[in-house]
Amino acid sequence: MNQYVNKKFSNQYKATIGADFLTKEVQFEDRLFTLQIWDTAGQERFQSLGVAFYRGADCCVLVYDVNSMKSFDNLNNWREEFLIQASPSDPENFPFVVLGNKIDVDGGNSRVVSLKKARAWCASKGNIPYFETSAKEGVNVEEAFQCIARDALKSGEEEDIYLPDTIDVGSSSSQPRSGGCEC
């Protein structure tokens, strides 16, 4: 997140407690948008804060460490927890993007989650877009966030179009109220 927004990486970066928040302006189809990017750190002790952070989201990015099987195994739990707490109107089609991070560590020799395994998991969840990244070296960070922005903006447009409580203002069936006004 910091690499994408600020083009910076720090080994002294402090782990997120609760949530971190950054914004970035992006150009998409000749329009300027401001992305609000929340990092909830994936720590179980902060899961109860999820509803406050997840509601209204247009895309969810799940990040795991390619050098940690436990991190990868938690993807399912985090995806399900997000869907429960965010309560999107169409959970089956809600956009997710998965990032396998830390591909730079030990020249890739510490890796325990294969590209094949990660892609298979994403395919089993409805063909979730998948990127392998290095926040430290900036590998695939821009490409991943372009996909995230595209999916989020597409999701946001679809929600804006959906109007569950429409009122036909041209209807002739309105009744005058006690004040004589039909409005």
Automatic annotation (TrEMBL):
Subcellular location: Endomembrane system
Pfam family, one: Ras
UniProt keyword Transport present: yes
One annotated Gene Ontology cellular component of this protein: vacuolar membrane
Sequence similarity: Belongs to the small GTPase superfamily. Rab family.
PANTHER family reported in the protein's UniProt record: RAB FAMILY, RAS-RELATED PROTEIN RABG3F
GO MF, one example: GTP binding
CDD domains from the UniProt entry: Rab7
UniProt keyword terms in alphabetical order: GTP-binding, Lipoprotein, Membrane, Methylation, Nucleotide-binding, Prenylation, Protein transport, Transport
Record organism: Gossypium raimondii (Peruvian cotton)
GO BP: protein transport
Entry keyword Hydrolase: no
Coiled-coil ranges (or none): none
InterPro entries in alphabetical order: P-loop_NTPase, Small_GTP-bd, Small_GTPase
Protein name: Ras-related protein Rab7
Membrane topology designation: Lipid-anchor
Main localization (coarse): membrane
Domain of life assignment: Eukaryota
